[in-house]
Inverse folding.
């Protein structure tokens, strides 16, 4: 194994170790020292592979986004039919899949939103591209629901619908704030997306 | 000044000092040592007045809720008329006031959601009561929009509408995630609340 291969192997071992910490204990428990110990390298060696821990967290968050995409792609069988009701059904199914994902992977899901880059830097392009790709799952039924929207406006509205759904899921799952019983929460997610969908179809 | 009065004076000085730190630097910078120094007492003396820093943060968060209530009470002049459009206008005005408050007081607003009690304890009743009181501002136009709702269901839906609005405001103001220009963000808040309102009125 040459140096480049060793480096690549270490890189993957570090992402795996960080993924375990984030999904089992949460982002706040991620410490370089523990990671070095987990993969059996010196502390400084981590920084030969990643400029800082942020780079490592972004890789784990990318895996979370990809895992989430696999979940919604599975929930993506269309209802059949091109009317507004079918588009609303599809939007609702996406929102319910988001809730299910957040419940199934609470800590790695939270890490997507907790993580802040040093110096208020924006995430790198490869990460933003994955986010944009995910919004397309919302844009597709939205284009059937509101065919009059221009692409820019549809993109913006898809983000807003995501944000609204995220708010209901996030506060609804938060035991300290507005925690709701699981069945009630899913009912509220469905209700709010259906109401938005009907309001948009009518407007 | 007797012991009880001194204690009460110290209590208020500590809340004032914590409020300054939270609103100027953010919740993560709140340290007992700095507070003791700011009010000129020994570190241990804080814990004669508050069981822990959580109690102090709750007092600051209560002040934030009261400040927010003053803002929305001012935005509360009714549009006049009892139809669904007026109710939607009133709900939209509340959501826009929420966005304006979050922008005007970003750090103390974030503290409302960042703060976690030790041992996953639920907030005390006096704090929860203030939250419930605030939801009534949403319930009032909602009762005009959806007169068919039972009280329990209306209360639940008011929380859900708040959570959806919070999601759009929170992610829209988050520079790391989905940050939007101010005018666009306000437009999206209005749009999502209007769509929800129309969907609810129609359903």
């Amino acid at each position: 194994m040459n140096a480049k291969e060793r480096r690549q192997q270490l890189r993957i071992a570090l992402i795996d170790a960080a993924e375990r910490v984030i999904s089992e204990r949460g982002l706040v428990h991620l410490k370089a020292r523990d990671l070095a110990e987990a993969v059996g390298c010196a502390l400084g060696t981590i920084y030969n592979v990643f400029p800082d821990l942020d780079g490592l967290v972004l890789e784990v968050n990318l895996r979370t986004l990809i895992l989430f995409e696999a979940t919604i792609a599975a929930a993506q069988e269309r209802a059949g039919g091109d009317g507004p009701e079918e588009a609303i059904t599809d939007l609702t199914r996406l929102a319910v899949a988001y809730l299910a994902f957040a419940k199934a992977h609470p800590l790695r899901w939270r890490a997507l939103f907790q993580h802040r880059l040093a110096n208020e830097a924006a995430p790198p392009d490869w990460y933003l591209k994955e986010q944009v790709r995910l919004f397309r799952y919302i844009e597709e039924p939205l284009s059937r629901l509101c065919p009059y929207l221009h692409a820019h406006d549809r993109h913006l509205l898809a983000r807003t619908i995501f944000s609204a759904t995220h708010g209901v899921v996030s506060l609804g799952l938060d035991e300290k704030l507005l925690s709701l019983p699981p069945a009630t929460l899913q009912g509220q997610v469905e209700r709010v997306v259906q109401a938005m969908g009907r309001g948009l179809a009518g407007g």
